[in-house]
Amino acid sequence: MPHYVGALDQGTTSTRFILFDGDGKIVAAAQKEHRQIYPQPGWVEHDPEEIWQAAQDVIELALQQGGISAPEIAAVGITNQRETTVLWSRKTGKPVANAIVWQDTRVSDYVNEFSRDGGTDRFRARTGLPLSTYFSSLKIRWLLDNVTGARERAELGEVVFGNIDTFLVWHLTDGVRSGLHITDVTNASRTQLMNLQTLDWDPDLLGAFAVPRAVLPKICPSSEIYGVIKQGPLTDVPIAGILGDQQAALVGQTCFKPGEAKNTYGTGCFLLMNTGPRAVQSTAGLLTTVAYRFGVEHASYALEGSVAITGALVQWLRDNLGLIRYSPEIEELARTVEDNGGVYFVPAFSGLYAPYWKHDARGVIAGLTRYANKGHLARAVLEATGFQTREVVEAMEKDSGIALDVLRVDGGMVENDLLMQFQADILNRPVVRSGIKETTALGAAYAAGLAVGFFKNLDDLRARWSADRAWKPSLDEAKRETMYRMWKKAVTRSFEWAE
Q1: For the chain, what is the mean pLDDT?
Q2: How confident is residue 288, by pLDDT bands cut at 50, 70 and 90?
Q3: What are the distances in angstroms from CA 235 to CA 48, 75, 222, 231?
Q4: Concatenated DSSP letters for 50-74?
Q5: Helix extents (H) in 344-476
Q6: Alpha helix segments (H runs only) across 237-310
Q7: Which of 36, 90, 294, 462 has its C-alpha lying 20 to 30 A from 494's C-alpha?
Q8: pLDDT at residue 259 above 90?
């Protein structure tokens, strides 16, 4: 009898494979980074073949580490960076170009062109999404328009599209021989091509974006047995769960009731609130997205606030400026000063996402004086994440009519105590860290485990959630509001920079 469930977690900067036991505890894990490719300003790419190789490597490493073999694993779930767009040959399995990453802004001219007829909310009623460089639709169109022969081959079904989940499932199920060309409702809801009500590809949207139907995968629930792995050390293990990374974290945090919310602090920040069976249309700059769909049950929806640059800003401070050698060192550097010294950092490197949706904004450091030093800059980098999260929380409360009592948090940055205390301070409400840090992978494992009966039901999953630590606000009210007002002022300086 299988004792474990696995999760292949393919993120923006690395790929991980984690094995969980029946209590949701990690028994083995392996991780491998992949390159970030920047061909020109605003462009961000990944090599899909490098990601596929990394996936194979981490699966093998984790199994070796745990001394675990395929028959001991009940199922595998997949979770992935969303919106990142791959086109590849059905005959050879080779990508026609590098993947265009969600952060990439090369389609900004398309955004302007499409917005002239109906504005940026032109497709929001059907898709829950504004026109933006963020989503897959315009990235697919760009590849079809700019890669020689891609459109003709796509119309014939020779070239196929997928976000990273689709690309990995296709390869795991034996690619050119028998590869399944599928995605789940959460990933499909991020393409801007799926109708939120029908949960299927929308013919009018496909026509508007000039995307051939033949290129698209089949849309499936987030939890069901899709097929079995047909190569490598996991041969014959079912693939039984697919969730976009932020929806996976919502599931991993067991936010199954309307009004429950989580914030994941990774490359970007993503705050999701479960709204139940109703797709709530935002009036405050948020996204309406599918939260999950388990088997034949009705889909649950969520409001989402997406912040493009949070953890990536720490990486930028490390890699581009060399102020720290390792990302965790930012907390020590930030603690060398008492406050931000009047410095505010708006990291609009790829425009501003929620709640502004300004693709022409660019990064700004405001308030510099001769007094400012690298400690103030480090603190401003961390505080930017807290400020941006508050903006999203306020928008979410406005849209949902629900006041958040507490914010559940996960992701790599939640290890930073200074940041978490500032988050509680600037929000003026408690911040609670989950007992299991890897909630994204855990959510994918939960989805797969539910499909094969490894986990019983949602109550079974809820019983596994526990808090690790909580931070309570301790900042003076006047100071809090002064800092937030100055942040807002700095944000306006980033607007309309790109021409």
Answers
A1: 93
A2: very high
A3: 22, 11, 21, 5
A4: HHHHHHHHHHHHHHHHHT--GGGEE
A5: 374-400, 417-427, 439-452, 458-462
A6: 245-252
A7: 36
A8: no
- 334 touches 379 (CB < 8 A): yes
pLDDT tens-digit map of 59-109: 999 999 999 999 999 999 999 999 999 999 999 999 999 999 998 999 999
The position carrying tokens 């009731």 is 257
| 170-174 average pLDDT score | 95
Amino acid 434 reads S
pLDDT given for residue 282 in this prediction: 87
Contact 99, 48 (CB under 8 A): yes
Strands 182-184 and 218-220: what pairing?
Answer: parallel
Q: Rounded to whole angstroms, how far apart are CA atoms 181 and 145?
A: 22
Cβ atoms of 234 and 197 closer than 8 Å: no
- Compute, in degrees rounded to 10, the torsion defined by CA atoms 31, 32, 37, 43: -10
Q: List the structure tokens of 95.
A: 């990508």
The answer to whether the CB of 307 falls within 8 A of the CB of 392 is yes
Question: What secondary structure letter does DSSP report for 385?
Answer: H
User: What six digits make up the tokens of 312?
Assistant: 């990536």
Burial 157-185 (b: 16+ CB within 10 A, else e): ebbbbbbbbbbbbbbbbbbeeebbbbbbb
DSSP secondary structure code for residue 194 in this structure? E
Asked if 268 and 308 touch (Cβ cutoff 8 Å), the reply is: yes
Instruction: Name 46's bridge partners.
Output: 99
Confidence of residue 389 (pLDDT cuts 50, 70, 90): very high
The pair of three-digit structure tokens given for residue 339, joined into one six-digit string: 């406050």
What does DSSP assign to residue 83?
A: S
SS3 294: strand
Closest CA to 406 of 350, 471, 347, 468: 471
For the chain, report the end-to-end CA distance as a whole number of angstroms: 61
